[in-house]
Structure to design on (558 residues):
């Protein structure tokens, strides 16, 4: 560990504790997992030469991405840069035109059951009660028990019998998270799952996702347009620009993370990089970068 | 502001006024019994026919026809709707044919139906079945096709396929639309039955009213019309009950919903 890293650690220690939502606190009973349900660890992801076109439009062009087991990677980029498409290719929801994806060295298709995805809209089945939504696609013994346990992990045990229609947006995403976790995925794909939530709920969800990730040890890939969110959660922030990877930034901050000088420095670096290429506009049309206080989230 | 009791009575106010006026007009001699008998006479006829068991017999016959016709036509509509909604090939093969048949008014087929089936039970069942077929077919087809693609994608990525995908996602997603078809069909069912029963029958509400017409028993004719109204309302209440049960997850279909 070099001097800079030490400094960052020290900063993180002195930072105020991250906000932990009371409602989302982990049910102590859920902590006692049977061996079968113990976390299975993360999968190593290796994507090479991925290309995808829709008609004449390039969406991804020769994109490569390697993720270590258990790593948390965030992909940021402007709207339409292809970040969601990359996630959909990894999820197997769409087929790539070129390139290959492997999980732990095997073809992606052999690990379909190890991959779970969380969508921007929770996509709960409105005609199933919350508990049955969490149990969707589960087979084998103790389906109800496992679903109950997952629901407890996101702090919604008391809503098991409710219809999804009566839940708030944040609660729906927590149910969706439980539904993904109950399958003990080794790769969890998050497609802007917090994009539609308000700022406070989003902070709560950050804490929840981080704690569950630490506990289960799955590999996580988060697609987001919010650089702050990416820096708050990820070990690595990857920027996609012009259909290819333009930046791959490590975030060596201790968890749980809080705002501070080191956090802001990384966030600024990523933002600077994003804003230095203002979409289709010619670069000379842009004035000198505005002072810090005037940054606006442009992506 | 109106209080809750007044609110509850209000919908009945207009019918009460109409019936009272009608009764008064009959008693005063402004309305001939040949045109319209007084409401009290209709009630008395209703009571007499109930006591003699005639109403029971006719209502049972009509209800049986309605239910069997609805079962055959609705069942086929549901089946074919599921088929064409689920499989593109079935749609290509069947849908345009069915759309052509749909545009023929069922009642225009009466001469042909009489030639095919004579004037016995099958003619009436055929007409009812044909009429209820299309609303259920169309709405089932539409329901299957308009299930949220995002939910299907999600369910597939969570390992659901084939029968499980069908019963847990596609069917529940189209129930709301299918029930709209059922309610349409229930309305049509009585219309078609009335016509079918007035053509030729030995029993049934339609037969009872046609028979009464020949003997100028306007009170019995009105009893028959009243029975159709009551049975129609009953069918609608049942359909609403189904909606409340099957769509209890749907905030728009609950009694206290604000939509």
């Amino acid at each position: 560990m070099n001097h800079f890293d030490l400094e960052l650690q020290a900063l993180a220690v002195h930072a105020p504790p991250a906000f932990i939502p009371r409602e989302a606190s982990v049910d102590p009973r859920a902590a006692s997992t049977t061996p079968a349900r113990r976390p299975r660890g993360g999968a190593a992801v290796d994507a090479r030469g991925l290309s995808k076109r829709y008609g004449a439009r390039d969406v991804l062009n020769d994109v490569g991405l390697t993720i270590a087991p258990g790593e948390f990677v965030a992909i940021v980029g402007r709207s339409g840069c292809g970040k969601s498409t990359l996630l959909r290719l990894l999820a197997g929801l769409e087929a790539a035109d070129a390139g290959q994806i492997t999980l732990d060295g095997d073809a992606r298709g052999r690990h379909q059951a190890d991959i779970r995805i969380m969508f921007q809209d929770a996509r709960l089945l409105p005609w199933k009660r919350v508990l049955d939504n969490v149990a969707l696609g589960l087979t084998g013994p103790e389906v109800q028990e496992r679903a109950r346990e997952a629901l407890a992990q996101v702090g919604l045990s008391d809503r098991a019998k409710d219809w999804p229609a009566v839940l708030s947006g944040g609660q729906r995403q927590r149910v969706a998270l439980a539904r993904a976790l109950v399958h003990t995925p080794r790769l969890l794909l998050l497609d802007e799952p917090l994009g539609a939530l308000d700022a406070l709920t989003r902070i709560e969800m950050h804490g929840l996702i981080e704690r569950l990730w630490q506990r289960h040890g799955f590999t996580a890939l988060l697609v987001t347009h919010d650089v702050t969110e990416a820096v708050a959660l990820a070990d690595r922030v990857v920027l996609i620009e012009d259909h290819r990877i333009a930046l791959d930034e490590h975030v060596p901050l201790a968890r749980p993370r809080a705002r501070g000088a080191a956090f802001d420095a990384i966030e600024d670096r990523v933002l600077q990089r994003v804003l230095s290429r203002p979409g289709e506009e010619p670069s000379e049309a842009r004035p000198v970068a505005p002072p810090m206080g005037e940054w606006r989230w442009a992506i | 502001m109106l209080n809750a009791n007044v609110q509850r009575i209000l919908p009945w106010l207009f019918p009460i006024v109409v019936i009272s006026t009608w009764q008064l007009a009959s008693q005063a001699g402004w309305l001939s019994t040949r045109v319209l008998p007084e409401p009290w006479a209709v009630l008395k006829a209703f009571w007499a026919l109930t006591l003699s068991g005639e109403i029971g017999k006719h209502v049972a016959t009509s209800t049986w026809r309605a239910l069997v016709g609805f079962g055959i036509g609705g069942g086929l509509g549901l089946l074919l709707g599921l088929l064409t909604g689920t499989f593109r090939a079935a749609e290509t093969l069947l849908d345009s044919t069915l759309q052509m048949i749909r545009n023929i008014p069922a009642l225009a087929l009466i001469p042909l139906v009489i030639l095919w089936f004579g004037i016995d039970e099958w003619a009436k069942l055929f007409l009812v079945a044909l009429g209820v077929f299309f609303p259920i077919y169309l709405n089932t087809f539409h329901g299957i096709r308009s299930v949220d693609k995002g939910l299907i994608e999600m369910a597939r990525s969570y390992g659901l396929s084939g029968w499980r995908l069908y019963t847990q996602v596609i069917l529940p997603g189209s129930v709301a639309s299918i029930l709209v078809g059922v309610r349409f069909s229930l309305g049509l069912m009585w219309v078609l039955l009335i016509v079918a029963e007035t053509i030729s029958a030995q029993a049934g509400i339609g037969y009872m009213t046609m028979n009464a017409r020949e003997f100028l028993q306007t009170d019995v004719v009105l009893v028959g019309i009243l029975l159709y109204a009551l049975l129609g309302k009953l069918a609608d209440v049942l359909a609403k009950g189904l909606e409340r049960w099957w769509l209890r997850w749907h905030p728009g279909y609950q009694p206290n919903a604000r939509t």
